[in-house]
Amino acid sequence: MSVPHAAQPVLDRIRVGSAPDSWGVWFPDDAQQVPWQRFLDEVTEAGYEWIELGPYGYLPTDPAVLRDEIARRSLRVSAGTIFTSLHHGPSVWDKTWAHVSEVATLTQAMGARHLVVIPSFWRDDKTAEEIEPRELTAEQWKQLTTGMERLGKQVRDEFGLDIVVHPHADTHIDTEEHVERFLHATDSDLVNLCLDTGHYAYCGGDSVKLIRTYGERIGYLHLKQVDPDILSDVVAKGTPFGPAVKQGVMCEPPLGVPALPPVLEAAQELNVDLFAIVEQDMYPCPPDQPFPIAERTRRFLRSCGA
Predict the structure, then answer these.
(1) Which helix (H) or strand (E) holds 15?
(2) What are the boundaries of the signal sequence (predicted)?
């Protein structure tokens, strides 16, 4: 007697895409990165329809040029990305807003609705030098949370975009404790999360638990996995994030953790449309390495129903 297969979950609220990050792109201009034209060609050929802008200046910043380039490849943009140091308080606001305005202008022009906001690093990801304390003071937490709310309101008022804050390794919003503290201190009408499954696992968090506990605060997903063996070594040695990436701590799904099907199913159960953008940190990497991984990853996600 044959055992019937369980029905594949329907993941019709999940919109899968990829990002320059999956092609080893961390900087606007770097000799170790593939040219932007190659990224756009290969992300299309790998089967993705949505992309992020990546570091501002990597893709063309002239809206007319970029609109033409993505339209020719039947691509659409889901979000732009910014880095912020808002825990430093009002003194950094003007510089922050000048950069945000550039990225938001291009993001809006591409028809996207989200800005992914990454907090600044407390440790230099190349030298491992601690450039700030790992823990914020109570006053710095207040500056961070009120600054993010101000940013969320101004970005929405001026550009019609929603910010989604990205918990990230080697930043002050990383562990479950820090993420929950941040959520409790911010207004859900102004600030929500970009849950990066790899970074959250890297910092000891459980993505499915976070989605089920704070589902109304999950505004966006980055799909990523970590290699548990390499992560154990990274944690034991206190390796900073940049060198950890060079070690291969972020790996190709489904070879690492967390398992992505339960994450996608929990996200689907929220019953809202969510972007799920594949990001496999690989800087630096050989130019021929990203495409086959991206293609296999897209095939794997289709097998999960996404």
Answers:
(1) strand 14-18
(2) none
